[in-house]
Amino acid sequence: MTTDRPALLLSIDYEDWHQLVRRRVDVAGWEAPGPALARQTEALLSLLDELHARATFFVLGMAARAHPGLLAPIVEAGHEIACHGDAHRLVHSQTPDEFAADLRAARATIEDLTGQTPAGYRAPAFSITRASDWAYEVLAGEGFLYDASQHDSPIAGDHPEPVTATTAPHRLESGLWEFPVAVWHTSRAKIPVGGASYWQVLPRPLVLTGLKRAGSMAGLYLHPYELDPQPLKVMLPPGATPSQRTHARLRQAQRNGARRRAPGMLRAIARHFELLPYGEAYARLGGENPGTFKP
Ligand SMILES: [Zn+2]
């Protein structure tokens, strides 16, 4: 169904915040399932249902394995399952072979848990750089149809030499479609408006204006923790050092800021834009809807 509202692409980078924060501060047992992803998923699915919106879930393999029951309700609600890699390692820190192995591990987990083959990919922290743009060839070689990792903003990810991105969907040399994250290009700056982490610091009218200017089919991304109905609390093991605790609390404070603003902003965005999963945008651009692919 098409409407006269401009279209934006809605995505969730589906990962377990507790796994990632515990790994970042380097505590033992970080890969154990975190205590919050189930309630975050429930809140997220309930909000998407309220907004009559379907989204693309870029699923992180290691999070899905730690919570094997959580993908089924996402699929049942009609959302698209795509791939966020397996171990959340930066693409530019890997070799092409390591990157391919990471994709295969994630895809095997996703196929095992959902019966679906992901057609789309988003790099952890938008980490495909000019020096690692071989990643597009690897993705195409592994059977992926589109990428959603380009984010043309100097403050997104902070990687050396990010690939040059446009705001509109476009075809890459590898044959993949690229769906970049929404960035508002003003005469003076590139303002990232597509992620909930930016919504915590930008006034709502500015975000809505920026999304209109970002162009049709620009990408939005959220994380499950940004929809958490409860405050995020890092739970470190008893042996964690004071420095590990301080580091973890800092991450906790940053993430809780984004959490407070995200649901209201997404409701406001849904009033002004049509929200689409990426696979549907891919189909509208002429490809077969990858949501119908089965392994
Ligand atoms: Zn991520």
List keywords for this structure.
single chain; 295 residues; alpha/beta; TIM Barrel; five-stranded parallel beta sheet; four-stranded mixed beta sheet; 10 helices; 11 strands; 39% helix; disordered C terminus; binds zinc ion
Question: Which ligands appear in the coordinates?
Answer: zinc ion
Radius of gyration (CA) equals: 18 Å
Instruction: Indicate the proportion of strand residues.
Output: 5-15%
Shape: globular
CATH level 1 name: Alpha Beta
Tell me the helix content. 25-40%
Low-confidence stretches: 291-295
- Tell me the distance between the termini: 27 Å
CATH topology: TIM Barrel
Sheet of most strands: 5 strands, parallel
Could you characterize the architecture of this molecule?
By secondary structure, the chain is of the alpha/beta class. The protein has one domain (7-287): Alpha-Beta Barrel (TIM Barrel), CATH 3.20.20. The protein contains 10 helices and 11 strands. The chain has helices at 17-24, 37-50, 61-66, 71-76, 96-114, 134-141, 196-199, 204-214, 242-272, 278-284, and strands at residues 7-14, 56-59, 80-83, 120-121, 146-147, 170-171, 177-178, 183-185, 190-192, 218-222, 274-276. The strands form 3 sheets. Strands 1, 2, 3, 10 and 11 form a 5-stranded parallel sheet that branches. A hairpin with a 4-residue loop joins strand 8 (183-185) and strand 9. Helix 5 runs parallel beside helix 6. The longest helix is centred in the C-terminal third of the chain and has 31 residues, at 242-272. It is globular. It starts with 6 loop residues before the first strand and ends in an 11-residue tail after the last helix. The structure holds zinc ion. Zinc ion binds at residues 13, 15, 84, 88, 124. Zinc ion (ZN) binds next to loops.
